[in-house]
Amino acid sequence: MSLKNLSYSALCILFIASLVLAQGPSKLRNEQPPLPVDEIIRKFAEKEKQFKAARANYVYRQDIRVQTLNANDRVTGEWRQVWDVTFDQSGRRVERVISAPPDTLKGLQLTSQDLQDFREIQPFVLTADDIGKYSVKYLGKEAVDDIDCYVFDVAPKTMEKGQRYFQGQIWVDDKDLQIVKTYGKPVPDIKTKDNENLFPRFETYREQIDGKYWFPTYTRAVDTLQFSAGAQRMREIIKYDNYRQFQSDVKLTFGDAVDGAGKPDSVPASADDNKASPLDPRLKQPPAKKK
């Protein structure tokens, strides 16, 4: 997200607001798992590969809301798009923008990297094909509601130009060996002489769909982006719902077909932006609001 012009007084207020930020794992237990850590990593990466292949055969709706906030976390502007991720008659994977009200963001401008992150980083998947790109370090165990999880720190080993990566922590169910939660940020931030493109820290929760794989259902970010010209407070909420397995005799293909996506036409603020998506019964509590 790049910065639009802000007044000096607004910058000062938002700098103060930036002192209160979200946190990562807070109740880690120093417990060693019954299996070697490398074996757990190998097994959950293989499960992630299976999950990615399974999710590619589902259709779903992705509701994305990005808001600019003042020092009291009141909404000053909003960008919103609702996508149906589905297949066309030839079996190609497509995104259809079904709602895109006018953009009213104050102080921020979305970029092509933001749109890419909505598709690939916020619903982060760490498969056996990609895990070699990351350093994965075991941190301990922590419960997510009543699900006991292994917690790993994840960071890219190197960052190739033009590629997007995740950096943060993942929570892996110690029974299913599947990721149920991620917390971190897209990297790298992109800074040039004329522009700064910064990205927020976020949490994504997954829900068990059709009794087998854990699909992303809810992403939330509340962060203050520290531009050189000053700080900008923002909130991001993404809901993924109405997952349905695609039923067709048509051969499916997975290109980059997009019908209307990537054309920011956004939304006025609404009162329901703090409502969490219902989670799996094993995740009884929605993610807490981060101050």
Residue stretches low in confidence (pLDDT < 50, at least 5 long) are: 6-22, 249-259, 261-291
Q: Number of helical segments?
A: 3
Q: How much helix is in the residues? A: 10-25%
**Major sheet summary line:** 11 strands, mixed
Mean pLDDT: 83
Shape, per Cα inertia axes: globular
Strands of the widest sheet, in order across it, are: 6-7-8-9-12-13-14-2-3-4-15
Calculate the terminal CA-CA distance, rounded to whole Å: 21 Å
The amount of beta strand, in percent, is 35-45%
Rg (CA only): 19 Å
Q: Helices and strands: which structural class?
A: mainly beta
Oligomer: single chain
Instruction: Give the tally of β-strands.
Output: 15
The ordered string of helix (H) and strand (E) elements is EHHEEEEHEEEEEEEEEE
Describe this structure in words.
- By secondary structure, the protein is mainly beta.
- The protein has a domain of 187 residues.
- It is 13% helix and 43% strand.
- It contains three helices and 15 strands.
- The strands form three sheets. It has an eleven-stranded mixed β-sheet.
- A hairpin with a 4-residue loop joins strand 3 and strand 4.
- The protein is globular and about 50 Å long.
